[in-house]
Write a structure and sequence with these properties.
It is a single chain. This protein has about 280 residues and is α/β, with parallel strands linked by helices. It is about 50% helix and about 20% strand. The protein has 13 helices and ten strands. It has a five-stranded mixed β-sheet with strand order 4-5-6-8-10, with helices on both faces. The protein is globular and about 65 Å long. The relative contact order is 0.11.
Length: about 280
């Protein structure tokens, strides 16, 4: 049987690939085997990967809500839109976990023009200018034009920053972060000019997904106990991370969620934060 991926590519259906993705979410071997057993007869030639995901997520949510939350991570980040600001906050939180001091949305003078930088991060006397490219559509990739543009902006502000005697730090490097993927040309260009690139799965073994799991920086959109509308209301209050909800129930009270549901939501929050 063939599967049509979100990118439009066609590949053979792989039980092992589905099993691996479910295991990565923390589901038990028994839970995974139960899901595989139910889904396998439903697979037909040309089925979309999105349909397979929907079936697996529905079943996993019944068996293990916390694993379902982790399993939905990629789509949960798309749900942070439509603006890119929540994604910038997520990236900023990741940098803080790695020991950087960060500022969001900073205006800097370049040698030629003024630039708005998504995140300015400082560590050990060095400063990094970070641009975030958020996409709501999984099909959208960043081709070589994006790092070319970002690097030209970085070079403009770097010269001005490092010539300014008032700056006690060194503007060392530009970064480009996206929630989707880079083309190979974009990766090659980034390596050539020294522009750090971070995408969903790049660098291999150290992409966004790996880092979010490692630091437990799950967005509120992964929570299975919240409705879509409630997630939107929470994001509107500038609450992006599950960890922020762990600080108390007052945000949930503000959007008039019942005490029993708040208890269920905080239980899921606590379990996700303890992973």
């Amino acid at each position: 049987m063939t599967v049509k991926k979100i990118s439009g590519e066609i590949e053979q259906f792989s039980t092992q690939k589905l099993e691996k993705s479910l295991m990565k979410s923390g589901a038990t071997k028994q839970e995974v085997q139960t899901i595989i057993k139910i889904i396998s007869p439903m697979i037909y030639n040309g089925i979309s990967s999105d349909v397979i995901y929907g079936k697996a997520y529905f079943l996993l949510k019944k068996l293990n809500k916390v694993s379902a939350s982790k399993y939905s991570l990629k789509r949960a980040i798309f749900d942070l839109g439509p603006t890119g600001f929540p994604f910038e906050k997520l990236v900023g939180a990741l940098l803080k976990e790695k020991g950087y001091e960060t500022k969001i949305s900073v205006i800097l003078n370049g040698e030629c023009i003024t630039h708005e930088i998504d995140i300015l991060a400082e560590k050990d006397g060095n400063v990094y200018a970070i641009e975030c490219k958020f996409h709501s559509d999984a099909k959208t990739v960043s081709n070589v034009k994006v790092p070319l543009y970002i690097n030209s902006r970085f070079l403009d502000i770097q010269k001005q920053w490092n010539l300014n005697a008032k700056n006690k730090t060194h503007l060392k490097q530009g970064w480009l972060v996206t929630n989707t993927r880079f083309t190979q040309d974009a990766v090659d260009y980034g390596k050539c000019v020294g522009l750090t690139l971070l995408s969903w799965d790049y660098p291999k073994g150290n992409g966004m997904s790996k880092n979010i799991d490692a630091y437990g920086l799950y967005p509120v959109t992964v929570l299975t106990t919240l409705t879509k509308r409630e997630k939107e209301q929470i994001i509107a209050m500038d609450i992006i991370l599950v960890k922020e909800l762990a600080k108390g129930s007052h945000y949930l009270n503000k959007i008039k969620i019942s005490p029993q549901r708040i208890k269920n939501i905080l239980s899921e929050v606590e379990k996700l934060c303890s992973i």
